[in-house]
Amino acid sequence: MLILCIETSCDETAAAVVGNGSEILSNIVASQIDVHARFGGVVPEIASRKHLESISQVIEAALREAKVSYDDLDGVAVTRGPGLIGALLVGLSVGKGIACARKLPLIGLHHIEGHILAPLLETDLSFPYLALAVSGGHTHLYRVDGIGSYRTIGRTLDDAAGEAFDKVAKMLGLGYPGGAVIDRLATEGDPEAFVFPRPMLHKKGLDFSFSGIKTAVMYAIRSLEKVDEKSTRDIAASFQAAVVEVLTRKTVRAAMEQGLERIVVAGGVACNRGLRQRFAELAASEGLQIVFPSPALCADNAAMLGVAANAYLEHGRHDGWRLNAVANWSLDQLEPLGGFDPLAGEG
Amino acid sequence: MGKTLGSLLEPGDAVLLQGDLGAGKTCFSQGVARGLGVPEDEAVTSPTYTLLNLHQGRAPLLHADLYRLGDTEELEDIGFDDYQDGHHVLLIEWVDRFPELFEEGLWTVIDYGHEENTRNFTFEARGSKALSLLTRLRQALATEGERR
Question: Which of A18, A277, B2, B87 could potentially form a cystine with B32 if both were Cys, beta carbons 3.0 to 4.6 Å apart?
């Protein structure tokens, strides 16, 4: 089954063609193909949000790269939420148009469902597992019992981890995207030079908070007479150590509490090398299987929608023409797909 | 402070927040949302990445953040105008990125205090609706002060 997938929920305009829920024939993100060229390699924080200007080109590029035509498609999948209504509606409307014109089934999907199922495009992974979705807009822990069967067990109460990375980078006068710069500097700095709080680490429950750590970094910067290169590296390393410790320890604790042996770490921050390294160490010491999608599938993309889309369409589940975008939508509200996986619902 | 302000808000009010990174705009916003009656179990998170978050309290609350916006046209692109309808309470962080966009509202500046973990608040009312809100806030804070 060949599915055209479209994602426009936030900054990226993206389209992909995925075969049988596992084979990525193409995976196009707008900022990769034109914004780099237009702005000479410097990606402004916002420029890629012009979905309407790039959606047609992105879809055409996805079909071209996959070497398929509209005639070859078996279905269309679009992100219907959560996100900005105006942004979501661009992808949703185009998806509806294509599905209607080509008489194809249309399925509307949850953006985070895409992220936490993304590793299934690359690895065999059986349910149930724990998923940490960590990006600029999310820091959530989910129990994943099968396709469509998700339960939120922890979440940030204020800032997402990725947002803290970007804002601390800004405080240090570093470039954008902040996460990548801090990750690089952290390898050269002393992670114990500054002691930053580990918010919520010793509290019961699995929620996160990353807002206060920004304030702590600000006080550290103010305590210095001059922020030179060494102190910048040390602050970056100490900050990253604090965030990584909270994310990894809470995630492992969540897996233990839920009796899960497999963990998926997804979303843009899953590219962070410090985070990957610490998780790898914990996987070895705690006997856990920890899976990261490859970098192209960590950041926002459309191919990640292919896993759930394929499963739903195979089971005859699709949406009608009145499908609408939803700004606020909890993963817990999704309907489980009965009988897709023998392990679904276990535990 | 946020909670007290939130409890006084009426549809159409605008709270315009300004303050450095880490000063506590989102923390203050959480208080405002609770004061406006947004349920405790509903997370009020930073809108920096999402740009706009909607909550339902006594009045619908639009919690927006201009931090990532490149120009004012983008505010239109994300549908911001739809919420300037007199029904929504507007709570906007990083308003100093585009101050010219907001003629009326309660300008709220949060500064780091001299001592660690203290903050100074500066309020400025622009327009009659904001002036009435600021008057109510002053009374409420005075009453709270007396109670202590």
Answer: B2
